[in-house]
Amino acid sequence: MHAVRDHERAVDTLRRSYAAVPAGEPVRLAKRTSNLFRPRSAPRVPGLDVSGLTGVLAVDPTARTADVQGMCTYEDLVDATLPHGLMPLVVPQLRTITLGGAVTGLGIESTSFRNGLPHESVTELDVLTGAGELLTVRPTGEHADLFRAFPNSLGSLGYATRLRIELQPVRRHVALRNIRFTRLEELADAIRDVVAKGEWAGEPVDAMDGVVFSPGEAYLVLGSFSDEAERPSDYTGQEIYYRSLRRRTRDALTTYDYLWRWDTDWFWCSAAFGVQHPVVRRLWPARYRRSDFYHRLVRLEHRHQVAARVDRWRGRPARERVVQDVEIPLDRTADFLRWFDKHVGMTPVWLCPLRLREPAGPGSARAWPLYPLQPDETYVNIGFWGSVPIAEGAADGDVNRAIERAVSEAGGHKSLYSDAYYDRAAFDRLYGGETWRAVKDRYDPDHRLTGLYEKAVARQ
After folding, report:
1. ∠ CA 382-384-388 to the nearest 5 degrees?
2. Could you tell me which residue ranges the FAD-binding PCMH-type domain spans (predicted)?
């Protein structure tokens, strides 16, 4: 009962802070962490007070569900579910991603080849709309249109204060097989085989992702939940996870460490701060080997441009940020990876196969119009995070624009947490603009909340 009362007070605080924002001023969340790589205009008024919406309200081990506040991080959510032998159906790879953020902004991980995206495990959620109403929305009923349009709306339709999600049983360890491929077509065939059979070489597969170091060296990492592991590896200290794929064909991690295997080094991006150098690593406090700390360093660099000034002093070209996750149909994945290697040249890149979940019941196939993936299609999420030199005569953003064109030509989509350059017509076509406007007019008739295009492309 205390949790319920505390939650009600936190929602009241949020609603009061929303009412205090003057009409015409942008509405933002006042949150300490962010996983966005999209610069935004500076707010002129205080953000919404979500400080009381950061916890897990309840875990039901029998029903395998959890009621979670919108600003709860997956780190805290996993801490609450693992003691029950349960985990969310999809746990995005970075600790401070929030449940509300993963639903309204999308998330993915290695269980997505069978469990889809995080919003597909949501059975109901409470949303504070742009009209200031608090609504409980479900897949069916009066507010089903908001339920379907909420994923990938990026806060343009409202903010989730509570979500009820499905959980899955999990074991103590994850046994890993690191399968090397020298041809990208063979890797794609292996993904297709695992998706179809749920196994590889006679062993079950519960999780699947991969890394491409070059078109001739790629790895598929196949995980199986297990209660047995002689000596699980530890990649939170001197060892670095992604490097192990080249050295080990078999591995094992505790389930907890597996869920956060990418967070310690922010995949491989910690190298930009020197943290992968053995001497620096020994001196760098373990509590700072986390993605949220690295992200704070990146935000400081964006603010003060220290590295950019040093590059100019040394006569080096300016650099363009290329930080994206894109979904490419499996049949086009090998071609896209070769195009990317030739025209962008960043390595490594992350692979995460994805299929939308099976319908929840007879005749209840769900559509997600603001990120319209085909329900019978296997996609591969390709993640690449870094920067490239701006070529002479080119403009900042040209590489990202070329990637957008290549993704569209391949029949794919890209996530909107980072830079986007679409014109409005293309954006509306790709991200359900007609549906978004209809839902926006119903639940935010005065358009108090910043629009989706304005957030994703205009950086408002």
Report:
1. 145
2. 1-170
Question: What is the SS3 assignment for 56?
Answer: strand
Entry field: residues in the chain: 460
Single-letter amino acid code for the residue at 430: L
Rounded mean pLDDT, 345-350: 97
This prediction has a pTM of 0.94
- pLDDT confidence bin for 361, thresholds 50/70/90: very low
**pLDDT at residue 309 greater than cutoff 90:** no
Which pLDDT does position 30 carry in this prediction? Answer: 75
Mean per-residue pLDDT of the chain: 93
Identify the residue whose tokens are 């929030």: 98
Taking residue 82's Cβ as centre, other Cβ atoms within 10 Å add up to 16
pLDDT at site 364: 44
Half-sphere CA count of 435, side-chain side, radius 13 A: 21
Paired tokens of 324: 């994206």
- Give the pLDDT mean for 348-356: 97
Contacts of 65 (CB under 8 A, 6+ apart): 59, 123, 164, 165, 166, 167
Query: CB neighbours of 433 closer than 8 A, spacing ≥ 6?
Result: 424, 427, 453
Rg (CA), the chain: 22
Please identify which residue in the block is written with the tokens 């999809």.
90
Give the E-state strand segments of 363-438 in sequence order: 379-389, 413-414
Report the distance separating Cα 146 and Cα 129, nearest Å: 10
Query: In terms of Cα–Cα distance, which of 63, 54, 57, 82 is closest to 166?
Result: 63
Whether the per-residue pLDDT at 41 is higher than 70: the answer is no
Angle formed at CA 452 by CA 450 and CA 455, multiple of 5 degrees: 65
Confidence band, pLDDT 50/70/90 cuts, at residue 362: very low
